[in-house]
Amino acid sequence: MIKEAVKETEGHMKTAIIALGDLLATIRTGRASPAIVEKLPVEYYGTSTPLMQLASISIPEPRQLMIKPFDASSIKNIEKAILVSELGLTPNNDGKVIRLNLPPLTEERRHELVKIVHHNLEECRVEVRNMRRDMIKELRE
């Protein structure tokens, strides 16, 4: 019983750490990464669909993302989703693909990113501590 509880708690802790890694991958730094927009919800035929299911995302240059939709009619919806998101990026549409140019980081933005990362890291630490505390409490009972 003890080994089962420990394994279950370890699984939950690993899930929390993986979630933190995914969250950190979506933070917009000065370098282009498809993870920034992959899970961006796009309204497509009445349903919210992740962008990675609607388009291919590539990196033609170090500071640029290129989004090529599988269906050309979804370009407007993808543009709208990018503008509405909190990414702070402006899409450039040429009718077939959408290009996102990532601006260089300013010192102010770097400090803001450090605060965001520390906040996310602390949330993950608290979550792992709570899981450990709950397991110890359960084992004592």
Structure description:
The protein has two domains: 1-29 and 106-141, Topoisomerase I, Chain A, domain 4 (Orthogonal Bundle), CATH 1.10.132.20; 32-104, Gyrase A, domain 2. The chain is built from three helices and six strands, in the order H-E-E-E-E-H-E-E-H. By secondary structure, the protein is of the alpha+beta class. Strand 5 and strand 6 form a beta hairpin. The model has no long low-confidence stretch (mean pLDDT 86). The chain starts with a helix and ends with a helix.
Residue share in β-strands: 15-25%
Major beta sheet summary: 4 strands, antiparallel
Structural class computed from helices and strand pairing = alpha+beta
As a percent range, the share of helical residues equals 40-55%
Number of strands: 6
Q: Could you state the order of secondary-structure elements as H and E?
A: HEEEEHEEH
In which order are the strands of the major sheet placed?
3-4-6-5
Which stretches are low in confidence, meaning pLDDT under 50 for 5 or more residues running?
none
| CATH fold node name of the largest domain | Gyrase A, domain 2
Mean residue pLDDT: 86
Distance between the termini: 12 Å
- The number of distinct structural domains comes to 2
List keywords for this structure.
alpha+beta; Gyrase A, domain 2; 3 helices; elongated; 141 residues
Fold blueprint:
Blueprint lengths: L1 H24 L15 E4 L2 E4 L4 E7 L2 E6 L5 H10 L6 E3 L4 E4 L5 H34 L1
Antiparallel strand pairs: 1-2, 3-4, 4-6, 5-6
Helix pairs in contact: 1-3
